[in-house]
Amino acid sequence: MLRPLRQILHRVENGLLALLLAATMLLACTLIAQRLLFDSGWLGGEAATRTLVLWLAMFGAMAATRDHRHLAIDVLPNLVGPGLRQAMYVLTQLFAALVCAALAWFAWTLVQMEREAPSELFGLVQTWHGMVILPLGFGLMALRFLFGLQRPEVVEQP
Question: What is the pLDDT of residue 85?
Answer without folding.
Answer: 84
